[in-house]
Each structure stands twice: as structure tokens, then as C-alpha cells.
Amino acid sequence: MEKKLKVGVIGATGMIGQHYLRLLSNHPWFEVAYLAASPSSAGKKYSDAVAGRWHMREAIPEKFRNIVVEDAGNVAKAAGKCSLVFSAVEMDKQAILSLEAEYASNGFAVVSNNSAHRGSEDVPVLIPEINPEHLDVIPEQQKKRGWSKGFIVVKPNCSIQSYMLPIYALIKAGYPIEKMVVATLQALSGAGYPGPSAIDLVDNTLPYIGGEEEKSEIEPRKILGKLKNGKFVPDESIRISAHCNRVPVTDGHTACCSIQFAGKKPEMSEVIGIWKNFTALPQELKLPFAPIPPIIYREEDNRPQPQKDRDTGNGMAVTVGRLRKCNVFDYRFIGLHHNTVRGAAGGSILTAELLKAKGLLG
Ligand SMILES: NC(=O)c1ccc[n+]([C@@H]2O[C@H](COP(=O)([O-])OP(=O)(O)OC[C@H]3O[C@@H](n4cnc5c(N)ncnc54)[C@H](OP(=O)(O)O)[C@@H]3O)[C@@H](O)[C@H]2O)c1
């Protein structure tokens, strides 16, 4: 049996860090060998560092309990322990840019949940089913930044994943989309722990999530864009208008979408067929976290629902429903995904699997 690749988690004590450990505890290719967080957790056994703030339903995996948490800023401590780090630190943007660059310059592959590098012109924002070819930027990134072995790849904002696979499937089938209006209903876990106060959320919804609408409108264009001369050129042909709302749901982001095609529109039955038959590189490569199928279409009028559909495909599939004609654009539909799995730790793990399958992890 092939030896597992040693990986680390920086921000391991946080909400997303805990999801990484839960999802990686029995991973067939990766073994977690390095945990790091802020100086206040450094030096403690993992179980002590998260005492009173372990948020997962499952107990702390036994194998991680006694690992001593390192200070994420002391990159030398990771040397020899792992070759890839998953990054899920909560720090200001400049500090994250420097920290992730320091890991990459020291030879580590960095797969990040953080938004800091999403705007960097040489850093791919990856959804493995959509833009795996964006990984071709890695040699350019290394050359430009003087990194011999390390590099940075990021995952997009969790708000967009409920609609990116469905719209990409249509674009790939030859039906480009000209414009789209989307209203998201985003789960509490997307705000991290403890998130908004209970008094603001019981019997309520919040119509503003700082920065989220801009990310929902800009990131899809980069993901659908092309790599030219070592830089990403965004796809300006699609226009998105987003309304992002926080709702009292624990996990699972919903997106209510209206789309207009650039040219001829497919019949509704064809749209459903395209979604049901959609498959991509992660499925062809049989990556361990690749959901098969990646898009599920539910015929019932009352689906998708966060409670019932977020765990489909082990939290990695996107569930779509309620395709119908739109009175303003061509069609409308509802998409749903698990924001802390597909939209965060699970999505990054799938990216790391793709990196390994493409031979980019040495
Ligand atoms: N929650 C989501 O659904 C979601 C989804 C996608 C992306 N993200 C992004 O993922 C990142 C983590 O989110 P989260 O919800 O897991 O946050 P969180 O629960 O607040 O955890 C933050 C982590 O960062 C560490 N940290 C804080 N200051 C640090 C420092 N100076 N040096 C090193 N480590 C430091 C913390 O360590 P200590 O425990 O030692 O303080 C902790 O491990 C954020 O950038 C967030 O925007 C979150």
C-alpha cells in the first residue's frame, strides 16, 4: 500500500480546523501530522487547546488528542513533519497573506480556506470540477515569487458553491449564461463560532453579510476565466447580482437563482438532464472526496432543504430543485450545498486530492 502523504492544519483549533480533523481522520491518502494555531494554543495538547470549544458532533479523533499544537507563525516547526498545509486561520488579511506566503516559500503546498489570496492574479481559486486547468499557473507562480517547491491554491467563498456547479454544467453543455440574480440564505456556521448573537437570529433573518455579495459576484468570473501569460483573465461575459442573507439554519447554504442565457435557451427537460448527467475530472479520477454524482436534481416542490439535503454525497454534492420558468429571466431554480464541507474543509480536501492525482505534491 502506498504511504500516506503527511499534511498539516494551520488554524486547527478553529471551527473549520475541527472540520478538517473530522474529515481527515480516516482519509485514504492523507495523514495529519502537524497542527498549528495561535500562540495562545501553542504548546498545549490538542485536546486541551480545544477544551470547551470542540464543536463537532463526533468526539475528537483519538489520534489527534495528544498532538502538541505549534505556533502557526513558527514555520520551521512544520519542517519535516508534512509537505502540505491546509490553512484556516482567522487573522487580518495582511497577516494571512504573509503567513501563507511564508509556508509556500519554505516548500509547503498551501491549500487555503481564507479569502486573502483570492484576488491574487497568480493564485488559482479552485472548484475541482470546474477549473482544474487553473493549476497550470503553479510553475508561473513559483517562478514569479521565487518559490522552488511550495505554492498556494485557494478555495472560493462558501456563498457561491450552491450555484457554481449547476451554472457551469449548463455553460459546458453549450449554453453560456449572460446574467444571473441570486439571493442566498446562508447558515450560521458560515460566520464561525459563536457567530451572530442568538437575540439577533431567533425569529429573524439578517440582510447583510459583510463582503459576501462582492465575493459572490466577482469570484465566479475568476473561476470561469482563462489563464493567459501566467495571470487569470476573468470571464466578463457573465453578470451576477447577489443578495446575501444570514438565516437561522445551522449548516447548509441555499441559493435562489434566476438565470438568463446569452443565446438560445435549452428546454427545461434538457437542463435537468444536463445536471443529472454532469460529471467532471474529480469523478473520472475517482478522487476519494469526489461526490458521484456531483449534482442531484430533486423533483419534489419542497426540496432542496438544508436539513434533508446538506449531507448528500457526504456533504460534497450540490442539490438542485424547483427549476421553473422565470417571468423576468429565462429560468429560476434553488441550489443547496453544505457550507462547512463542500464550501470549506471538504472542498479544500478535494483540491488537495486533485493536486496529488496530478502529481503536484512531489
Ligand atoms: N466558518 C466557515 O464556514 C468558513 C467557511 C469558509 C472559510 N472560512 C474561513 O476560514 C478561516 C477560519 O474560520 P473559522 O470559522 O474556523 O475561524 P475560528 O473558529 O475563529 O478559528 C480561527 C483559527 O485561527 C487561529 N488563529 C487566530 N489568530 C491566529 C494567529 N495570530 N496565528 C495563528 N493562528 C491564529 C485560531 O487559533 P486559536 O484557537 O489558538 O486562537 C483558530 O485555530 C477564516 O478565514 C474564515 O473566513 C470559514
Structural account:
With 362 residues, the protein is an alpha/beta fold. It has two domains: 166 residues, Rossmann fold (3-Layer(aba) Sandwich), CATH 3.40.50; 180 residues, 2-Layer Sandwich (Dihydrodipicolinate Reductase, domain 2), CATH 3.30.360.10. Helix content is 28%, strand content 22%. The protein is built from twelve helices and 14 strands. The strands form three sheets. A six-stranded parallel beta sheet has the order 3-2-1-4-5-6, with helices on both faces. Helix 1 packs across helix 12. It is globular. It binds NADP nicotinamide-adenine-dinucleotide phosphate (NAP). NADP nicotinamide-adenine-dinucleotide phosphate binds next to helix 1 and helix 12.
Give the tags.
362 residues, alpha/beta, Rossmann fold, Dihydrodipicolinate Reductase, domain 2, six-stranded parallel β-sheet, 12 helices, binds NADP nicotinamide-adenine-dinucleotide phosphate
